[in-house]
Amino acid sequence: MSYLVLALKYRPQTFDEIVGQEHVSKTLKNAITSGKVAHAYLFSGPRGIGKTTTARILAKALNCKESPTPQPCNKCTSCVEIVRGSSLDVLEIDGASNRGIDEIRALRENVKFAPVSSRYKIYIIDEAHQITHDAFNALLKTLEEPPRHVIFMLATTQPEKIPPTILSRCQRFSLKLIPQKKIFDRLNYIVGKEKLKIEKEVLDLIAFRGEGSLRDAQSLLDQVISYAGNKKIDLQETNFILGVLPFERLVEFSDLIAEHKAREILSLIDEITESGYNLDQFIKDLRQHFRNMLLIKVAGKNTKILQLPDKHLGILLGKGAQFTEENMVRIIDLLSKTYESMKWSEQPRLVIEVDMFRLCQPYIPIGEIIERIGRLEKSLTLDEKKGNPSAERYVQEDKKSPLMVREGKKLPAGNNSQIKEITERWEEVLESVRKLDIPLHSCLLEGSPVRMERELLHIVFPKNYSFHKDRVEKKSNIIEQALKEVLGKEIKIKCITGETNTTSRSQEKTEEEVAVPNQEPVFNSEEKKEVDPVVEKVIKMFEGEIVKEEREEK
Fold this sequence. Notes:
three-stranded mixed beta sheet; Zinc Finger, Delta Prime, domain 3; about 50% helix; five-stranded parallel beta sheet; elongated; about 550 residues; alpha/beta; Rossmann fold; 10 strands; Helicase, Ruva Protein, domain 3
């Protein structure tokens, strides 16, 4: 005997066996018990959730030897023939291949004849939305007033394509996606019947991959069983069979995005591609991973929204602290756009790589930008109330240049005793930072402490090391913690940029030039020395600089 796939072997045969559609089963059983059976039904919903199965069970219940009964016996001739698909009184029609007006005209002629051996002559039309508009119009009158021995049952995944005139003549039942927990229970029941050795995590993964469709989940289980044979099926093999990226790899990827490590991300994408994973599925999995982190960050670990193993929930809760909620929403949105763009691109991998570079760019929340602008507006308003400052304040001397300080390995501390102490013990601070965060230590190496203002330490970076400066600013709390450990006092830090490009300290350059941070900014324009007060405040607020001046065209 040929092998019978699980979806057919364990197809529900009674209303009670239908999974996840209790609202439909209960209504139909009550209708049969009370004798209020309609002449036309429409079953709609996604694929693989039981539309045609429900229609067949209803047909058995109406034509069973003991009918009308909500529990067909599945033993009489009528029930057996319906299960086999050989009943002369229950006709299943494929709407995709019998969609024309000629086929519907033939159906209209056949409905006049009485059933051969059953109580009702039942027409089950699958994929009913594929029937043409003219064919529906030809069926309309028959569907509205069929002979008393005829019942129509329509099944469709796209009810919006069926004309309203047809919908109004049917009792409509909307079947819903099946919850993951119920799919898992059904799969567990099948595994017990088949006496298979499968880990619980495997069934969790297959139920999740079913995406609400029990038939899809059963097909995936069939695939896994075929690969494993008689040996025990574990999660690692299942990931390989289904082409699913392991959870640990998704966590690794999110960590790299949080740390802005573009080079490592490209290497990982190359590894994923070489391993044969589907790139579309990879983006979907990564998007789902960030969605899970967002939900658990908002709803907490004990939420019932996510049906994941407890160890995964704990990891997601910890990793979610690397991102703000706003940033995770941005990442999910960008991954969704990546997935759509890949469908129309000749080089989907290129689309992924470009968007990954975007994800690795430093991100400033819109709320912080608005807050900075608000502070700027408030400051300008106060200046207007006090009166505009003299324009002479913003005039630079013609030949004035930034005071340059020659240094060997460290900058001089001057007369400030605090900065002298910090400068002398700066290597200890660096070592303390290295123990806490190695990448941050590498960035801090390019900066040097230059002065103290009360409890605020100014650290200067060469002009071409803005990335290192931004990185240090982002994790200033770690550096402040290291300063407290070494010096025993609370010190805040502020990062500033020098006036000249400087080579890396790692190259052990003996001398370098750095602008004294309290020097007024000097611009390269020789013609215009006066800076507008508004522009000056914007520069200070956002720590920017004037790169080029262009005259307004009149």
